[in-house]
Amino acid sequence: QVQLVESGGGLVQPGGSLRLSCAASGSIFRIAAMGWYRQAPGKQREVVAIITSDGSTDYPDSVKGRFTIFRDNAKNTVYLQMNSLNPDDTAVYYCNLDLGTYRLNYWGQGTQVTVSS
């Protein structure tokens, strides 16, 4: 069983920055793809950033150039650096671990990010 614990959410003004962290338990972190997703009220959950086990990253156009995902395998932690935040980024942000080869997929409990003046 894998547990994912997010931290770093909060209230930030438009144009500000936040860094989210997701710490994973267990020994499969380094071979798993990690992702950040978000869900705003009344909307479907959407992907924000993905990083594969070899460090390749992918972002949707809505956050490209503003958000950066990176991982520290020694700490079993994945991060999401968010810059130039705007109110449309307000959502609950979830960490995801995916190891499709073994049909393993886990979610964190979520952390709230609110962008408001």
Q: Gist?
A:
By secondary structure, this protein is an all-beta fold.
Q: Any overview of this molecule?
A:
This protein has 117 residues and is mainly beta. The chain has strands at residues 4-7, 10-12, 18-24, 33-39, 46-51, 57-58, 67-72, 77-82, 91-99, 104-107, 111-115. The protein is 0% helix and 50% strand.
Provide key terms for this protein.
four-stranded antiparallel beta sheet, mainly beta, 117 residues, seven-stranded mixed beta sheet
Q: What does the oligomeric state look like here?
A: single chain
End-to-end gap:
40 Å
Write down the secondary-structure element order. Answer: EEEEEEEEEEE
Tell me how many strands there are: 11
Uncertain stretches of 5 or more adjacent residues: none
The general outline is globular
Radius of gyration: 14 Å
Class inferred from helices and paired strands: mainly beta
| Biggest beta-sheet profile | 7 strands, mixed
Give me the number of helical elements.
0
Q: How helical, in percent, are the residues?
A: under 10%
β-sheet strand percentage: over 45%
Mean pLDDT metric: 96
SSE layout and pairing:
Blueprint: E1 4-7, E2 10-12, E3 18-24, E4 33-39, E5 46-51, E6 57-58, E7 67-72, E8 77-82, E9 91-99, E10 104-107, E11 111-115
Parallel strand pairs: 2-11
Antiparallel strand pairs: 1-3, 3-8, 4-5, 4-9, 5-6, 7-8, 9-10, 9-11
